[in-house]
Amino acid sequence: MAVIHRTTMSPGKLELLTAWLPTRPWYRDGGRAPELSKAGGFRLDDPAGAVGIEFVLVNDSAAPEPITYHVPLTYRDAPLDGADDALVGTSIHGVLGQRWIYDATRDPAAIAQIVALLAGQAQPQAQSMSDTPDPSVVLIGEFPSTATEFRSALDTPTHTAVAVGSDRSIRVERVLRPEPATPASDQTDAVRVTVPWQIGNGSTVRGVVLVVGT
User: Full-prediction pTM beyond 0.85?
Assistant: First the structure.
């Protein structure tokens, strides 16, 4: 179980993401630096208790039209071997000290728990409270696989495709879209995770953040 500390991080997550997002292929460059605000998110527990796993949703008001990005992150107390290209940055946590923060789509610990979530074997947790399940995170369908081995991740203009096991893939949505009242036919039967988030006008919408096999 992850313990959420009421403390500070320096630099903070939004500050780190302001510098990192423009380096991503799926970032929608509006010609200005990102202007980020928290939109929502949730956490997953690392069974070993060593890695923080957080799914961060942020609104960017600097774009010509407001955009919500989905940025899964991991927090480690030491560098992750072979993952220099996935490093978002480092930060000093007020309780835990220096943390290395990674793009979770390249972190095997996070991928294992994403697979567990999609298989109905991991319970999503509230983003800002310890030991508190988050019922707003909804799994639709069930991933018919126990394969957890992370193989590769490939960024596209809209998502990150993560290959796991011998023949499975997970689509991590990056540029989020509110879910229509009637889902598109190509996603009706897809195993997916949906979450709510707040948009710029203060209203709440819901959409897909993870999809299996597309």
Answer: yes
